[in-house]
Every structure is written in C-alpha cells, then in structure tokens.
Design goal:
The complex is a heterodimer of chains A (about 240) and B (about 450). Chain A is built from seven helices and ten strands. With about 240 residues, chain A is an alpha/beta fold. Chain B has about 450 residues and is of the alpha+beta class. Chain B has two domains: about 200 residues, no CATH class; about 240 residues, no CATH class. The radius of gyration of chain B is 35 Å and the shape is elongated. Classes of the chains: A alpha/beta (about 240), B alpha+beta (about 450).
Chain lengths: ~240, ~450
C-alpha cells in the first residue's frame, strides 16, 4: 500500500508514475508513460522533445485540462487526479495560467477584453478587472493596443497579449505550450525574455514546452527531455 | 461567472452570428405568432359568444309566476319543494329583488290588443320594456332610438309588424319613425260593489272570493320611435312574443287587462294588486339555477333556459386546446431551429469553448452561456411573435369585418389578445428555448478542452 503523496516544501509540482494513454482503434497510444517529475516553486523548466513525444500531453495534465490514466500529480498541495470537474476549473482559474503556440486570443474581442476574460470567470468585479488587465498589459508593453482586435496585432503582440491574459489572475504557475512556435526567432526571443523576467520578478514557476533547445538553454533553469512519452533526460542547465 | 458577464458574453456571441441568430429568432417568433393568433382567435370567439349570450337576455333571466296550480301530484318530488302558494305582489317583488345575485326585478306586462295605423286595425301583442332593455342585444340593430323616458308615450315596433304597416321601401327609408299609432286596449278598473248576492256567485264554489273588476275601453296615442329585429329575450316567451313595445312605467299606468287577470280575480281581491309575472335579471348565467331555487322556495313558479354557458365554456376550452396544439406545432419546429443553431454554434465555437475552459471557465459557465443565448433568442422571438400574432389577428379581424359588411352584418371583434396571453406566450417561448438549449448546452459543457483546443 503506497503512502499518500503530499507536497514537499518548495515544490510547485510533483508527479509520480504519471500515465496518459489513448485508445485509437485496437491500438493504445502511450502519450505519457510512467513519468515522475518534481518542479520547484519559482523554477523555469523547459520540456523538450520532438513532435508527438508527449510533452504537450504532460503540460495538459499539469494544467488540469486532462486527467491521467494512472499516477498522481500534485500541484500546490492538490492532487489533480482526485479533483472534480469544478475543482479542476478552479485550478485552471487560480493556480495556473496558459500560453499556447497559436496564441488563442478570441478574435471577436479586443485585446483588453481578451485579457479580462479569465477575470470574468473568477468573478472579479468590473472596475478591478479593468485595472488588473491594464496593469498586466502595461507589463508586456501593450498599453497602446487595448482596443485592437487580435487580427490587428502582429504575432509577437498577440503572444504578449496571451501572456498578459495568462498572468492576469496572478497564477503561481505559468504553463506555456510552444510559445515561440508561431514566431520568428527574434520575436520568440523577446517572448522568452519576457517570460524569464516574469519568472524572476514574481517568482512564478514556468513550465514551457518547446522543441527549440537553443532558446530553452538560454532562458530555462532546467531542461527535461521526453521521448515516446517517457522522461529520458532531466538536468540543470550547465 | 456573474450574471451580467454571462449576459454580456451571450449578447456578444449572438451579435457575432447575427444573421443566423436573427433567422432562428424569426423562426421562434413565427411559432409564437401562430400560437398567439390561434389562441387569440379562440379567446375572441369565446368572448363574442359569451357576450352575445349575456346580452341576449336568454340565459340570465328568470320569469316568475304565481303558483296558481299548487303542488302537482303526478310529478316526482322536486328538488326544492315549494312553499305554500304565495301572492306575486309588490312585497314579493321586493323580496326577490333582495336575493343575492339579482340585478333587477320588474313586472312583465304583456297583452294582446288592437293597434290602429292610418285607421287600419292591426292585432298584436304588446309588451313593456324596462330601461335596462336599452343595453340588450336586440337593441343593437335598433333603427331610430330607444324610449326618451319611462313614461314616454312612445312605441318601438318589431320589424315584421312594421312591414305590415308600410311598404318595404318606405320602411327602409325610415318613413315609419315619428309616425303615430293608436293603441286601443282594455283597462282594468275597479268594480262597484253590488248588493245583489247573485253577482257574488263564484264557480269556485262557496267560500271563494267574491271580487271582480270592470273593463274599460281606452285609447292611447303612441309615437313610433324605433324598429327592432326581435323582442329582447323574446325566445323565453315562445309564441307569446310581442311585436310592439312600450315603456314599462307607461304600461303600468295603463293598467291593461292581461290574460291571467281573470284567473287572479278568482283567487284574490283586486284590492291586493298582484303581478301576472315578474322578470328577474341575474348577475350571471351561472347564478340562474341557485336564484331560481331561492325563488321557488318562496312559493313561486319559475321559468328559465338551461345554463348554456357551462357547455359553451367546455366547448371553448376544447377549441382553445386544439388551437393551442396547432399553434404549438410551429413553435416545436422553431425549437428544432434553436437546437440546430446552438449545435452549429458549438461546432463553430469549439475552439473558443476550449480556450475558455483553459482560462478557467467551469462547465456551469459554458452551460449558462448557451442557456442565456437560447433564452435570449426565445425572449426576443417571443416578443416579436406576440407582435406578429397581434398583427395577424388584426388582419383576420379586418378581413372578417369586410366580409360581414358585405353581408350587411354589424362588425364584430372575433380576435382578442389578453395580457395573460402576451405574458404566457413570451414565457412559453423562453421555456421552449431554454429546453431546446438543454442538449446543446450539456454538449458544450462536456466538451473535452484538449480536443477542443486542437480543433481547427
């Protein structure tokens, strides 16, 4: 009988024996296969791997967007595998912020409205919502783009907007899925610099999925490599 | 998510798919309009029929006679055993007038006599009309006017009788109005008491009342002021229907000999002024039966038509049900439109739903969003539908009245939209929309965010 897992001091995330399998016809896809991982609070961790290696699936498990087939995943003292659907929604609302490769700003809303959206789900009142959205948009340098719709922004601006949206609820963990995937190298670097600055200044734990090793080595504290759903390399940056 | 945010986001989503939302809303409004038009037609017809019945004076009237015959031995025991034979006098009239739900009680004066017009005699029955007859249905098509006062020496003729007096062309030109007729009638006078005991003999035998009355031939000039199609409440009188009408107070002052006066004379002293019959108007047809029972308990005979309104209400309840069902069919089709629109919206907004979930939206938030969108379409569709239904009803009414005018019939309101129908139709539209949103909302709420985010 295994002892129940609890959060160790200084750990933001602790996963043990984490599995996520999919059935595809008669075949079983082992997207994440027996992964154990610890992420310290305030750490900037890069998950590296080729396409289909399972790194995005692992990120989705950390975000509470998906449930593990087996194993345990504890984020800030809460075992995500045991949470109900409303509790998982609360986890996504309060504990984590997400940035996507495709930015995923809602096209029918202005940038400011996009950033305010998570605050609506958190039932923050209108006045506070506006102040907090502007504060975080100022932080990513987009105060002059408040009324613009995503279609009127460049890729870099959209990703900065998405970063602002991920941070507006002041999450403890920032989860980024290929944040530089749709950007040119210079803009991608700017985004990672911004993320590193956020990691430093507010001690936000950052878990970033990327396949760009060079950039990851420049900005992340620790690199974890996944291949075929298994964690194959875990090491601090040299 | 707070309600105002939910409403704002739902409104934004509906605006974004304006054309499709508008078409769906139009579908709902057509459904509601058909429901409103059908039900308002049923309600309108019911009101028309009820009003007609109420104004006909047939179903809210009880005619009271003195119980001259006494108990009838060959009939089964009545539900309400009559009291001892009572006199139908002024005291009885007041007692009946004091009964609950009784609006008015007036004496029935009706007598057969001769009326002369242009020196030609015409035999007919004359009846008195109380002032309240002015509002009866029979007076709706009155040519000319009602009596100018309760004692006015004026007459209203029934049209068949008027046709006996003048040629149709003169009648339609209103040539009879304002003309004079001479009423020749038998006045009931008091009898000078005679000492001769032979005059006091009575077929009723010893102990019967010895009294009688004199008959005096009288004349009264009357001015014709109006012509009506039928006698108010005439159906109650059967073959005794009158063809000439005079004011009630005038008729009382004339003291005409009526058909039952002779019989009353055999039973009571002429000093005891009694009525041949009393007409009792009751507050509503539904109260006729209880009022009739109460009058019978006082020892009088009564006559009334059966309460037809109860059957009428039952008929219209069934009619409204069927009309409502047909109207609801269109709304059911519209609800499929809502489901289709929302399911399409889920497909289109799949990625958006995934993003919202990734940002912390709960299943309840997503569900609420779709419910509000469905309900908003229902509300707007309901409002527009009530307006549209109202318009359809107006057009039906307008068209019907054109037809009625061509048939030389008075206009009617056959369509009626009560406030409860307006509120009910809107509430029903929202409810149907809400129910239609159940499946799409549940589907959206259960959407797997990972797959939704992957969706392009």
């Amino acid at each position: 009988m295994s002892t129940p897992l609890t959060q160790n001091d200084g750990l933001a995330i602790r996963a043990e024996g984490l599995c996520r399998y999919y059935s595809m016809g008669p075949a079983t896809i082992r997207a994440v296969d027996d992964v154990s991982l610890e992420v310290r609070a305030g750490e900037f961790l890069a998950l590296l791997g080729s396409s289909g290696s399972g790194k995005s699936t692992l990120l989705n498990l950390l975000a509470g967007l998906d449930r593990p087939t087996a194993g345990t995943i504890i984020v800030h003292n809460r075992d995500l595998s045991r949470l109900s659907r409303p509790e998982l929604a609360q986890h996504r609302r309060q504990t984590v912020g997400m940035v996507f490769q495709a930015f995923n700003l809602l096209p029918n809303m202005t940038l400011e409205e996009n950033v305010e959206l998570p605050l609506r789900f958190a039932e923050v009142d209108r006045a506070s919502r506006r102040a907090r959205a502007r504060e975080v948009l100022g932080r990513v340098g987009l105060m002059d783009r408040l009324e613009h719709r995503p279609g009127e922004l460049s890729g870099g601006e959209q990703q900065r907007g998405a970063l602002a949206r991920a941070l507006v609820n002041r999450p403890a963990i920032l989860l980024a899925d290929e944040p530089t995937g749709n950007l040119d190298s210079q803009t991608g670097e700017e985004i990672l610099r911004l993320m590193a600055e956020i990691n430093r200044s507010s001690a936000t734990t950052v878990v970033m999925v990327t396949h760009e090793r060079v950039l990851a080595e420049r900005f992340a504290h620790r690199l974890v490599t996944i291949s075929d759903g298994k964690l194959v390399q875990d090491g601090m940056k040299k | 998510m707070k309600a105002p945010d939910l409403l704002e986001l739902a409104a934004r989503n509906l605006r974004e798919a304006l054309f499709r939302s508008a078409l769906t809303t139009l579908g709902i409004s057509v459904g509601v309009a058909s429901l409103v038009a059908m039900l308002s037609l049923g309600i309108g017809l019911q009101r028309l029929a009820s009003r007609r019945l109420a104004r006909s004076g047939l179903f809210d009237t009880v005619v009271v006679y003195a119980n001259r015959m006494g108990p009838r031995p060959f009939r089964s025991a009545p539900a309400t055993p009559p009291a001892a034979t009572s006199k139908l006098d002024e005291e009885a009239r007041k007692a009946i007038a004091g009964l609950p739900n009784v609006l008015e009680v007036y004496p029935e004066i009706r007598f057969a006599t001769e009326l002369r017009y242009n020196d030609h005699p015409h035999y007919t029955t004359i009846a008195s009309l109380p002032p309240s007859a002015r509002d009866s249905e029979a007076m709706e098509g009155l040519q000319g006017r009602f009596f100018s006062g309760p004692q006015a020496a004026e007459a209203i003729l029934q049209i068949e009788f008027a046709r006996e007096l003048v040629a149709p062309a003169e009648l339609s030109a209103g040539g009879l109005i304002g003309q004079e007729v001479v009423l020749q009638y038998a006045e009931q006078g008091t009898l000078a008491e005679k000492a001769d005991s032979s005059h006091r003999a009575s077929p009723a035998g010893e102990g019967a009342s010895p009294w009688g009355f004199s008959v005096v031939r009288q004349e009264k000039k009357l001015r014709i002021v109006g012509i009506v199609e039928a006698e108010p409440g005439g159906a109650l009188r059967g073959p005794g229907r009158a063809r000439v009408f005079i004011p009630l107070e005038l008729a009382q002052s004339l003291r005409p000999v009526q058909s039952l006066n002779m019989l009353d004379t055999l039973r009571a002293s002429p000093a005891d002024s009694t009525y041949q019959a009393l007409v009792v108007r009751v507050a509503s047809p539904a109260r006729v039966s209880t009022t009739e029972d109460a009058i019978k308990r006082k020892g009088f005979n009564t006559f009334s038509l059966l309460d037809a309104t109860q059957n009428l209400r039952r008929f219209f309840a069934v009619l409204d049900l069927f009309l409502g069902m047909f109207g609801s069919l269109a709304l059911a089709v519209a609800s499929l439109g809502i489901i289709n629109t929302l399911v399409m919206a889920i497909l289109e907004r799949r990625r958006e739903i995934g993003i919202m979930k990734a940002l912390g939206a709960s299943d309840a938030d997503i569900k609420g969003l779709f419910f509000v969108e469905a309900s908003a379409m229902g509300f707007v569709g309901g409002l527009a539908g009530v307006g549209l239904g109202w318009g359809i009803g107006r057009v039906i009414n307008f068209g019907t009245n054109i037809y009625l005018r061509r048939q030389e019939l008075p206009p009617e309101t056959i369509w009626w939209v009560p406030l409860w129908l307006v509120a009910g139709a809107i509430a029903f539209a929202i409810l149907v929309s809400f129910l239609s949103g159940l499946y799409p909302a549940a589907r959206a709420a259960k959407l797997d965010p990972v797959r939704a985010l992957r969706y392009e």
